[in-house]
Amino acid sequence: MLAITDTAAEAIKSLTSDAELPDGGGLRIAATDAEEGLELSLAAQADQADTVLEGEGLTVFLEPTAAEVLDDKVLDVQPFTTPEGEEELRFAIGPQA
After folding, report:
1. Please, what sign has the CA dihedral across residues 32, 33, 38, 40?
2. Tens digit of pLDDT for each residue in 40-69?
3. CB 78 within 8 A of CB 69
4. What SUPFAM superfamilies does its record include (predicted)?
5. pLDDT at position 27 over 70
6. Which one, out of 12, 22, 79, 84, has a CA that is 20 to 30 A from the CA of 56?
7. DSSP assignment, residue 67?
8. Are 81 and 11 contacting, i.e. CB atoms less than 8 angstroms apart?
């Protein structure tokens, strides 16, 4: 099952709070096209086939293909410097230890 670091959990809570999602809303991770990678979006609720991960004030919905791909992965947030020199945070996926 996908593991989520504390840093990623805080980022997800911040995103969902800022978006003023209804209770039960969360971050949705989908693999709509295997060649395009994963797509992250905010969703008011899970799709019927989604796997739902809940804990410590956050909710993550995994589309079935994404759940399979992420089964042995960890979701983290890492700093990134843009070509313009600006610092931003980005979600990153790595192997579980």
Report:
1. negative
2. 999 999 999 999 999 888 999 999 999 999
3. no
4. HesB-like domain
5. yes
6. 79
7. H
8. no
Cα 81 to Cα 20, 24, 85: the distances in Å are: 28, 33, 6
Torsion of the alpha carbons at 19, 21, 25 and 26, rounded to the nearest 10: 10
Residue type, 41: S
Contacts of 45 (CB under 8 A, 6+ apart): 22, 24, 25
pLDDT at 45: 94
Domain enclosing residue 38, as ranges = 3-95
Closest by Cα among 34, 30, 69 to 50: 30
| Number of domains the chain is built from | 1
Element (H, E) at 15: helix 6-18
**What pairing do the DSSP bridges indicate for beta strands 87-95 and 37-43?**
unpaired
